[in-house]
Structures
1.
Amino acid sequence: MYWGSLSEFLEMGGYGLYVWTSFIITALCMVWEILALWRRRTAAIAESRNIMRSIG
Amino acid sequence: MNWSKYSAPLAFYPLAGKMIPWFGTIAALAIAVGLYIGLLVAPTDFQQGEAYRIIFVHVPAAWMSMFLYVVMAVWAAVGLGLNARLSFMMTQAIAPTGAMFTFLALLTGAMWGKPTWGAWWVWDARLTSELILLFQYAGVMLLRTSIDDQRRADRASGVCALVGVVNIPIIYFSVQWWNTLHQGASVSMTAAPKMATIMLTGMLLMTFGFWMYSLAVILSRVRCVILERESLQLWSKPSPVPEVVEVR
């Protein structure tokens, strides 16, 4: 382990704002993409079921 | 095993579904270990201090932004050459993830630029060509949505993706061809890496994780695209899409 304490880890040698913003926004984008795909999938399945009902 | 049958979207659908959990799990593991190494184990950089740790998301995102564009263009070429529906669907599925990684490469680059260069943004060749890549992804996506006829939309966005691939070597070699503020490559095919092994390990693990993540989300998106575009064909017995059939 490189860090001596938690506050040292969070401060990132004074660059905490830049480092954590980078990591957090990257994580948020990836989580958002997964959630958006989940919603799209649910909607697509519902739509397909509707079409199948209307046909058959 | 006859792999060619998987070029039919409805045959590919269940195969993609089986692969997603594997790629997702590998991605989660690689990213977890990569973050552990990058944030907790790797020592500080002697020049850039702790700000260098942005490399663990910036470089993987930038590599994926270029790599995914090339893969998207290859699918577009296959689609245009063989007139294969699944190829165009792959092109459609890759673009949003590629655009997201391009955005992240630019954003994390700005986060790195401010403390090290004193500027969020400079119009040097590397940054400008990467920004153009973001516009190219946007162009491929917008062109598709702006054309109602599906086949024409496929072909137009495919041509757009294919032509734009010329920008990839420009981005990659920009730091050699022009005098850029952006630093040169730390890792290349032709020279030994210019970084400590532990840093390189963390960065490569994160890149591998982002790659596996991309595979999982792109396969997941192509399944949505198949459902959206081939709904009428699901009415076959036996249908390959159990999620839809179970209400029958």
2.
Amino acid sequence: MLNTNAQLHSNLFDADALLAPTRDGFGKGVVEAGQKDERVVVLCADLAESTRAEWFQKEFPKRYVEIGVAEQNLAAVASGFANYGKIPFITSYAAFNPGRNNEQIRTTASLANLPVKVCGMHAGVSVGPDGATHQALEDIGLMRMQPNMVVIVPMDAEEARKATYAAAFNGKPTYLRFGREKSPVLTTAATPFEIGKGYTLWESESPHVAIIGCGTLLFEALKAARALEAQGVRTTVINMHTVKPLDTDLLYRTASAVHGIVTVEEHQAAGGLGSAVAEFLAEHRPVPMEMVAVRDRFGQSGTTVELYREYGLDQQAIEAAVLRVAKR
Amino acid sequence: MSYLTEDSETRLIAQARAVRETIIQMLVAAGSGHTAGPLGMADIFTAFYFHILNHNPKDPHWVERDRLILSNGHIVPVRYAAMAHAGYFPIEECLTLRRFKSRLQGHPEREVLPGVETTSGPLGSGLSQAAGIAYAARMDGKKFHTYCLMSDGEQQCGNIWEAAMFAGRNRLANLTAVIDRNNIQINGMTEDVMPLEPLRDKYESFGWHTLEINGHNMEEIVDAVETAKAVTEKPTVIIARTIPGKGVPEIEYDFRWHGKPPTKAEAEQFLIALRSLGGQVHPSDHA
């Protein structure tokens, strides 16, 4: 059953559940951060409407900086802002930010340890018809490998709002990953959010398998958990929204209490959340593990539903992975 | 009329020679690093640290300080040497260049050594950072000036032109760039590797005020910066013609000295050459 402590929407499985893209949560969260602190600025590389940077621009036109189609400059100018003492959010599609400006982020933000907030929109295959060029599947890995960098993948628009606001004040270079398509809003204003602290969304009694995920695919994970429980397969579903620093306390406790673990993410298996979980567990608490992730392929055009199916990311794929790991 | 008095000029010339000596000593001690660029920029760094900058070596984080951003981090020995002579840290520490645990990393890091302002080395992103600082400072009505020192080779980076476009469009008059136009890069002469000319026209067309000077003439360096500060409607770039390896006739103009340090024996010769400049200092003056 749903974990009541998570204070999720009770009707989240219903057809009339609230839908919103996580980028909307960014738009709201960055405006709230801007209201709280005038050091917050937003820099944008010619994608104001689709990244929702425009919402900040309308509220704070003087603190919105247009960079044009120049993602390297986007990152390095932001480092200059942060070096001076501002809190810059840089917005573009994840395929370009951090896809194109990885080195500028590495040297001028991460190594320099400046609080640049890298916001990668339209991440994953769910952006759909745009095709492989625009479907970032490597960004979590790129950002996770950089020392100092914090990596957050919110699972719905409400969590994205909270994550954006929290990232404004964590004093660290931070990567925030958002999606383009509408997805169910599972959390409420009362749902806890703290950078670096995962939490349980679903728990069957005495769970046999833990599903640990990040991002909007957690809805697929919840549907899988519900269906599996009906078949007598007991799981727990954990929202590991912060990929770095990983909540290793929670991970250790979870691995100690279950038979196996399934990780779920809209990213390459190489370098993403699954890799991060495996790196920790292999050293400290090895258990059977399966990764629901993209397997060394690029994306392609299609609908979100078609692509989740094609790349093995949907509810059925998660259920199959749970059943496999349960037997190992 | 110049902004620089004759006395000040004499003082700066002597100071630049001391900075060059330190550069050679630190490169020999390090056993690796770049020689030509640091020597070529010794006059400009000396002019900045001992005349132009509004700064306080005892308080490197002073918020009203002018910001001096070094984009081509590989010539940082000249910055370290100038900073040490200006009083940021003891001159002896220069000999720790590139050593394990040293604050004088092979390429500068802002968190490791206060006063270097940015972390740099990968070419092409210094102008963006300087532009970001200048833009942010203008938002807050700050009066300090931001300077960005760049190499000519890195003008081949696309990121430079993204930044040039941004600074021009936003009329960042509180930003002045200086290009070390020494015509060399690792693979040879810039105009053979990937031509930059007409460099001045390029910046003009991107909305910058442009000046061209002899980068070894203190009066021209100081006057150009004063002119740049007086231009209030756009950023200024000063293209400073310099001689790579300046001060050591044996290596001047030689691109092979871009990326290697002198040996001990070579350094002795270099120091004699430096100290004999103008016959003002005799080698035997120094043990």
3.
Amino acid sequence: MSRIGEAIGAPFAPVRTFFRRHRSLGIFVGVLLISIALPLITRVPPFDGIQSTNAWVNAFTTAAIYAMLAMGLNVVIGFAGLLDLGYAAFFALGGYTYAFVASPFTGVHLPFWPMLLAGGVVGAIFGVLLGAPTLRLRGDYLAIVTLGFGEIVPITLMNADKFTDGVNGIGGIDKPNIPGILQFTLTNPWPMYGLVIMLFALIMIMIYRLEDSRLGRTWDAIREDELAAESSGVNTVIAKLQAFAVGASIAGIVGVVNAAKITIVTPDQFRFAVSISALAAVVLGGMGNTIGVATGAFIIYLFQSILLKQLNTLVENFNIPVLNQIDFLEFQYVLYGIVLVLMMLKRPQGIFPAHRRMREFGPLKSAKRGSK
Amino acid sequence: MSAAKGKPMLKARGVTRKFGGLVAVSNVDFEIPRGSISAIIGPNGAGKTTFFNVIAGIYAPTSGTIELDGKPLISPPTGAGREPILLLVPTIPFIGLAIYFLIAIGGDTGLVEGVASVSVALLGFVCALLLNIVRPAWYNRVIKRIGVTRPARPNDMVEAGLARTFQNIRLYKSLTTLENILIGMHVHMRSTFLGALFKSRQVREEEAAAEQRARELLAFVDLSGMENELAKNLPYGKQRLLEIARALASRPKLLLLDEPAAGMNPKETEEMTALIRRIRDELGITILLIEHDMRVVMGISDHITVLDHGEKIAEGLPKAIRTNPKVIEAYLGRGAAAGH
């Protein structure tokens, strides 16, 4: 099997070596090609029968937003080995930051583009705030504290109704625009799609660069053996805070984009389920592998939002007794559970294991069979 | 011979470390002459590894001070009760700014003003928190004036020129040998967060140079050709060598080796002894080792210190230690010493 793969790949060898040397360019071109291919595929049956191309593009945009979240979480969990179950909190803080400065609720209307950066800064600040008291914690204990933080933030946002309008959330958030050239609207998903794809490529390039840098190596060291890392001269305190800050700032930026896309933020959008879906994507894709994690998030999102919806209409159309009483969309959390359990049992390294993790868990079964 | 040259590399004065009621190290005075190979020996549970860990900054001493290369680095922490002030004081200007801001707009706290002033105060708190965690050198100097001192952390000791290996090898097991060494070089690399993001020329050059030096270090401990091997897949003896290479990567002045020859066969032990000598002679690094294998200790040490029950019972040249009745008693018991 691998031989066939090699035969197919042979003509592309020079291309591959070129992109290995210029990885950032490779990521950019790859993301661009996929982002062009995806809408084209939806024009082909059976996909065109499911929903309109615009609805598909909208779904891809949301999927890419989730993929960015998962990539950010992967920095904390996959690189530095810090189990963070409250990741949605930073997503919420980014979203509310933008909602405060660009909605009729406060009457302030700042432009979107600088707020992207501001969302990142707010995320990083809260990342440090969460990271600082939890520096000594490891494993389960850290997971519990972060879980608590993830609950505190939406609950605070819900109860501080003077500032956040409580459960109603803040609506009518400004859409981004490029003055004189392009105005983003709710009906046209394409500009937002383009924006999210660009951001996706940018974040992926940045994460890959960090992973290969001196900082990325300190994260590796901490994940492997913290005491040894300290004795190698790594300031573990700072390195952990940096991991928290980088992960949280990505969530903050994505939160701003998400708020601008759906034009409303409510505390309910940021409950535990968001953290868990990001975690499921990280585990499904393969901890520590940025591209794998992004793909995992894409798969999970499309599965829950397209396939489960399709299952509903299918069952309704055929009018199957009992089954047509069930709303399959409500089963998405069951889906996360099943994904997490199955992955842990059958393939703990994820669908696309990180380079290192693959060696750690030994060669894949299919690869073994292929070589015999 | 080498002891005469200049100040000692490491000077410990009155070092005591207690764990609850147990005194693991008790009032030990200790000096390592520059350029020497020194050894600490003693029966099991004598406090050798605890003493090691105090020197390396892993445990803060209960009392006593340690100087490395003339710099006082480790002393017991003081003024812990005053630490909350450290968080509060730098925040006050920010809170003041927030209040001034609220007064300036006429005391009419609307929604935006409220959120803005709270975030200014929060920003101040985060700055104070970060200062307290990151602890730049000037900050340490300032807090020393109000009586708050903290012992150096292990990474500070590495920066000051100390490197160590562990009794039970602690490599980064699922990283390659090359990556293990690159992490060891961490303290001497200057690339910053932004530099890594934009992959500046300086960062690229530094990475290339680091990789080059890592390969040289692997060659020094005779591990060439194993650059891409995972650390955990190396045989035991080679793992020890890799750990030493990783310690050397931080360009130490003083290298601490915790039982470097433990679990090795006679041939490997001989090679290890030769390597330790080469580290001192070719790289000019002062070495302190803990070792149970007396052939190794007696063969290479210029200077031996004996610990028993946390106390220093003897020190001197190998020949003198071998015949010291106190040492024999510690190892073999009173009867054996008397019969000798």
